[in-house]
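Students often ask why inverse folding is considered easier than folding. One informal answer: many sequences map to the same fold, so there is more than one right answer. In these notes we will look at a single instance of the problem. The structure comes first.
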């Protein structure tokens, strides 16, 4: 893959400026962020018990492999909130140009408001945020002298009343070189899309089934097999799908679901005699209730991808177009973001990914002269414009897209990245989206381990009646077929956009 030349921090500041978290400390943090220099992006590390975002100041370069600058994270412990803001202000206004050149700084002024902080000095939300800031030095500002501490990271304390210039002494005395954590993150983000795609294609799916999740992995493995000229990859797909292509196993159980119907997309891509199975899937996918909802769907944004993935491949353009425009009329907000469902009216991250992928699956194959094309492009463009403004400072998208304190989630990032990258490549949106895509790609890479395991994948999620329902969905880490498939999809799109 070609080297990505990025102005990461400027782009991060632009995105974060559109989604500034509100809290009692928000005014001071925003004022410090507005001072020229870095950190300039306002984000969040989690949610306090009152659902206020735990506000952060970020420089947006955590995942930039081209940056040789070391990183320091400052965390406000008990009594340290104002002192952290003062330290950041001093760093931006009064520190030496050498210090600002040699160090990138991020901060969370009030970490003690995080859930569980009374029992533990570091909870899951804060640890996740610190980890992906990839610090070489961790500084806690607190009045009781206790350190948070993370393995392989140099940790120090500053007292709330100390002169801010003490920061320069601490950083000057820090041992040269990067922390193991920093090296690990940069190692991940330095990988080529082609190498990551190979890694993921060889690992996923771990559990073959007729479902959209294995099918996403299979269809992209077939594409990669052609690019890599590697017959073992296509042989793997044929071997894993053989129980169905041979007729030894039925496509569906007694209860037919649209998620399973979408799995038949792989048979369209396999072609030959397997295409008859895709025809069965397309017939079922086309069935529609009187309400306009897919017969075997739920009325969620999920249905947009599940329908389009098979209908577009089989040339059922009128049905697919009608389905997507109907769903968008119910689920796309005026600002362009999609809610998950009418009975789950929240901007679930993967739900927006499903909507975006459904649109691009159809637009990619839809004839230019089709009467619905202009309307579908408008839906897509409004969505991409809105999604762009919700990107986190580090390039990721969140589990609840418009909630700054929601965790930064792997599948939403992979899916929205894919939809945006394809739009750039095929000319549906302009090159001004390039930096958004490149930042998202680095964020995604940081969430893919060297063995292909993935980090922070939202668990399977139905429609929920409250935002809290979505915020509380577990973040899975490990060998996850869903997260692996979506990461493979994004890798293939980055190869198509940027080269191997």
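Output (designed amino acids):
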């Amino acid at each position: 893959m070609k080297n990505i030349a990025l102005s990461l921090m400027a782009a991060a500041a632009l995105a974060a400026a559109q989604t500034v978290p509100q809290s009692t400390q928000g005014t001071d943090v925003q004022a410090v962020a507005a001072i020229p220099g870095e950190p300039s992006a306002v984000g969040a590390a989690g949610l306090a018990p009152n659902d206020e975002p735990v506000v952060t100041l970020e420089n947006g370069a955590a995942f930039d492999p081209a940056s040789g600058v070391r990183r320091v994270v400052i965390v406000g412990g008990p009594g340290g909130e104002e002192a952290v803001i003062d330290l950041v202000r001093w760093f931006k206004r009064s520190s030496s140009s050498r210090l600002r050149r040699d160090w990138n700084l991020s901060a969370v002024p009030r970490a003690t408001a995080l859930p569980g902080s009374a029992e533990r000095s570091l909870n899951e939300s804060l640890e996740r945020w610190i980890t992906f800031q990839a610090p070489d030095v961790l500084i806690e500002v607190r009045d009781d002298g206790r350190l948070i501490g993370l393995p392989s990271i140099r940790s120090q304390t500053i007292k709330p009343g100390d002169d801010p210039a003490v920061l320069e002494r601490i950083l000057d005395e820090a041992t040269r070189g990067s922390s193991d954590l920093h090296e690990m993150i940069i190692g991940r983000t330095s990988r080529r899309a082609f190498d990551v795609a190979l890694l993921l294609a060889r690992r996923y799916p771990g559990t073959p089934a007729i479902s959209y999740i294995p099918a996403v992995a299979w269809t992209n493995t077939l594409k990669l097999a052609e690019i890599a000229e590697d017959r073992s990859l296509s042989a793997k797909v044929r071997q894993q799908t053989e129980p169905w292509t041979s007729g030894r196993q039925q496509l569906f159980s007694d209860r037919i679901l649209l998620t399973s119907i979408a799995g038949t997309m792989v048979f369209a891509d396999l072609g030959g005699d397997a295409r008859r199975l895709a025809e069965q899937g397309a017939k079922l996918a086309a069935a529609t209730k009187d309400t306009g909802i897919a017969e075997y769907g739920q009325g969620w944004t999920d249905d947009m991808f599940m329908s389009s993935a098979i209908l577009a491949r089989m040339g059922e353009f009128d049905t697919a177009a009608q389905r997507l425009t109907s769903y968008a009329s119910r689920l796309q907000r005026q600002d362009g973001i999609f809610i998950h469902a009418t009975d789950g009216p929240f901007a679930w991250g993967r739900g927006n990914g499903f909507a975006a992928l459904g649109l691009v699956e159809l637009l990619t194959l839809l004839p230019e002269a089709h009467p619905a094309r202009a309307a579908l492009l408008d839906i897509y463009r409004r969505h991409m414009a809105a999604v762009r403004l919700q990107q986190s400072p580090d390039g990721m998208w969140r589990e609840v897209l418009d909630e700054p304190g929601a965790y930064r989630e792997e599948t939403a990032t992979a899916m929205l990245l894919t939809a945006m990258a394809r739009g750039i490549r095929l000319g549906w949106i302009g090159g001004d989206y390039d930096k958004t895509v490149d930042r998202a790609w680095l964020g995604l890479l940081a969430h893919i381990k060297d063995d292909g395991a993935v980090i922070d994948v939202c668990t399977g999620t139905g429609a929920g009646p409250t935002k809290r329902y979505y915020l509380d969905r577990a973040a899975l880490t490990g060998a996850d077929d869903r997260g692996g498939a979506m990461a493979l999809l994004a890798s293939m799109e980055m190869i198509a956009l940027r080269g191997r």
